[in-house]
Design goal:
By secondary structure, the protein is of the alpha/beta class. The protein folds into two domains: about 250 residues, Type I PLP-dependent aspartate aminotransferase-like (Major domain) (Aspartate Aminotransferase, domain 2); about 140 residues, Aspartate Aminotransferase, domain 1 (Alpha-Beta Complex). The strands form two sheets. The protein has a seven-stranded mixed beta sheet, sandwiched between helices. Strands 8-9-12-11-10 form a five-stranded mixed beta sheet. α1 runs antiparallel to α3 and α11 packs parallel to α16. The longest helix is centred in the C-terminal third of the chain and has 21 residues. The chain is globular and about 75 Å long. The structure holds pyridoxal-5'-phosphate. Pyridoxal-5'-phosphate binds next to α4. GO terms for molecular function: transaminase activity. This is Aminotransferase class I/II-fold pyridoxal phosphate-dependent enzyme. InterPro entries: Cys/Met-Metab_PyrdxlP-dep_enz, Cys_met_metab_PP, PyrdxlP-dep_Trfase, PyrdxlP-dep_Trfase_major, PyrdxlP-dep_Trfase_small. Its cofactor is pyridoxal 5'-phosphate.
Amino acid sequence: MRKTETNLIHTGEEFNKTKAVVAPIYQTSTYFADENLDEYVAAATEPKHPEFYHRHGNPTNSQVAAVIAKLEKTEDALVLATGMAAISTAMLAVVKAGDHIVAQNAHYSGATLFLKEFLSEYGITVSHVDQTNNQAFVDAIQPNTKLIYIETPSNPNLDITDLAFVGQLGKEKGILTMVDNTFASPINQVPSEFGIDVIIHSATKYLGGHSDLTAGVICGSKDFIVKAWRRSITLGASLSPFDSWLLLRGLKTLSLRVHQINSNALALAEWLEKNPAIKKVAYTGLKSHPQHELAKKQLKGHTGMLCIEVAGNDEEEEFKNAQTILSNLTIFANAASLGGVESLVVHPASMWGSHHSKTQKQVSGITRGMLRISVGIEHIDDIIADWEQAIGKI
Ligand SMILES: *Cc1c(COP(=O)(O)O)cnc(C)c1O
């Protein structure tokens, strides 16, 4: 069996019917029928057919899906226009009015909005539990629970959900399990190995890796992907030919990038933890992470995501100091998103100010002195020097 690095470059090549070493961009909305009309009719109805009409499929979309399904060790995958399209399409392929979902307190903000505001208007109820408490998932299950939706490590505070426990719980109770694996990337974490049924990514982040596209992917069994595809052709968020091509290109270096990012992030986390200007560093690779042992069981590497709390005499001063750091960092741009080759930093309390109420922020563990960092592949010496000078401005 070929290894990941090889698969990233060669999986799905059968979808490139040309002699071009790099698959062309199929910048077309539609494909003509040849003489055999029966074949055309079959193409119109076959899920994900790559050459019928773009909303149904595209050769590059099929190639990208094959690469990601291989990484995630699932039978199939479906690529869509954004991570949120993947999340909403996948959930709507599972639940209908009258059903119940068990989810976490902390999720990506868009997922939280979808769970709390959108689904409730369509008669779907959701229980939110503390992801670090296995029993809370068990206790939240109701007779009409159809989905357990998790995210690990979660955004922004890097809490861990026990994948093996949730995978087993889903199997025992006959409930579908779904995880947002964006933060880890499949290089660091393969949830299907722990019995999770459906894996979602915002491919905008690590999979694309260059902050130049938006995309999402749903990975699962062949049957589930057909269900999700049927939803997707009515919801309509197909991934554009060019973004798909960029994603295919970005994926080739995924393993190289993620390994460098893991190593940079661990070094930065260790440096920050020793700095008195920083009150707390949440990084799954540090021994001080309350779930470090569990993290080691399910993560092969600890990702580029860390979350810190800046020190200060009171909350106001912590906020002020966080702002000083934020505005003085030069390599780390203050920008939404994560997982690219360039380092980014955000102030979660400001970024999600409009989405989250004060209590929601408390439940999600967001404080005003908190900064979320996405470490890139710049040289580690420059990364640390940037933090050193920015902290020096306090
Ligand atoms: C960014 C992100 C999403 C949403 O992805 P988009 O591509 O922006 O729609 C979902 N989950 C996580 C964990 C994310 O970081």
